[in-house]
């Protein structure tokens, strides 16, 4: 598995050194950014990986693997 860097520190899969610890990464084009996939993608296989889209550069893509980190109640 390649090393995936991520600076979104409030993600469940964020780890020290800005590393992503998700089992699987789902990257989409922005036109699908608001699609309702219902589930996070790390370790899940309920996403649509059958369609093929094109992006001209990274600014037209987004990561759907993000899952908000659960905060501990004090």
From TrEMBL:
Region (Disordered) location: 44-74
Biased composition (Basic and acidic residues): 44-55
Record-linked InterPro entries: DUF1540
One Pfam family cited in the UniProt record for this chain: DUF1540
The DUF1540 domain, residue ranges: 4-66
Name of the protein in question: DUF1540 domain-containing protein
Domain of life: Bacteria
Organism (species): Brevibacillus thermoruber
């Amino acid at each position: 598995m390649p090393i995936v860097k991520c600076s979104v520190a409030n993600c469940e899969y964020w780890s020290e050194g800005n590393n992503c610890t998700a089992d699987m990464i789902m990257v989409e084009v922005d036109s699908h950014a608001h699609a309702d996939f219902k589930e996070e993608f790390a370790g899940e296989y309920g996403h649509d990986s059958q369609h093929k889209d094109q992006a001209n550069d990274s600014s037209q893509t987004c990561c759907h693997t993000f899952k908000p980190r659960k905060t501990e109640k004090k």
